[in-house]
Design goal:
Layout lengths: L1 H18 L7 E3 L2 E2 L23 H4 L13 E4 L3 E5 L10 E7 L14 E7 L17 E5 L7 E11 L10 E12 L46
Parallel strand pairs: 3-9
Antiparallel strand pairs: 1-2, 1-4, 4-7, 5-6, 5-8, 8-9
Length: 231
């Protein structure tokens, strides 16, 4: 009977861990949620995070580089709001970041390699109460603005939630990533940058990746990656 109870406890813990994870299956365009994986490249690791920052999966998640041909490209207007939905509410502490990379042609055929990614949005920790708070907790979707100066063309649009709940130890950070394919219209003549590569944009000991959110109580948080390009 003791073994049976222990097994149930382990199962409950594993179930809780699984429920805490999530993925970004659908794009939001003009306030409308599109079909799952219509414009978002489908990953193959379900709701599990990427843990190796040197992996190619840092670009568009596990399986994301291979699923472009099955993914449509959404028309979006520069200066408009776009977003992603989540399969579960965010239940891990950590920031959200959004990147774009201009494709040389049809984004379905492109793997996003090289120094081509620029950050257009980020949402970090809140210290307004005097202690660290993570306002991302509990959200089920996230919307942001495509900079109005973004040049016309096709892009990969990459969203990432970085879970730092286990990031006090090196290799403990969890990356929940997705890439959508978009065609930007009505854009400007800006020069997006600085440009970074995935993998390569982050290091294992970057202050926002190797980070203890619990003790001693942090007074600041540095979001990983380059500064936001706002056009």
């Amino acid at each position: 009977m003791k073994r049976f109870s222990s097994g149930l406890l382990q199962l409950a813990c594993l179930s809780g861990t699984a429920l805490a994870h999530y993925k970004w299956p659908a794009l939001i365009v003009d306030g409308t949620v599109t079909a799952d994986y219509q414009y978002v490249r489908e990953n193959t690791n379900n709701i599990n995070p990427v843990m190796d920052i040197n992996s190619l999966a840092m670009r568009c998640n596990e399986g994301g580089l291979a699923s472009g041909s099955a993914t449509q490209t959404a028309d979006v207007v520069a200066g408009s709001k776009v977003g992603f939905t989540l399969s579960n509410v965010i239940s891990h502490v950590g920031p959200i970041m959004v990147y774009m990379a201009k494709a040389p042609g049809n984004p379905s055929d492109w793997d996003g390699s090289g120094n081509v990614w620029f950050k257009i949005d980020e949402w970090g920790a809140d210290f307004s109460t005097g202690s660290i708070n993570w306002p991302q907790l509990g959200i089920s979707q996230y919307e942001f603005t495509i900079p109005s100066a973004t040049p016309d063309g096709t892009y990969l649009l990459r969203i990432e939630h970085l879970g730092v709940h286990n990031a006090a130890m090196q290799g403990g950070a969890q990356f929940f990533i997705a890439c959508a394919q978009v065609n930007v219209r009505g854009g400007g003549s800006g020069t997006p940058g600085p440009l970074v590569a995935f993998p390569g944009a982050y290091g294992a000991t970057d202050p926002g990746i190797l980070f203890n959110t619990y003790y001693p109580p942090p007074k600041s948080y540095t979001i990983p990656g380059p500064p936001v390009w706002r056009g």
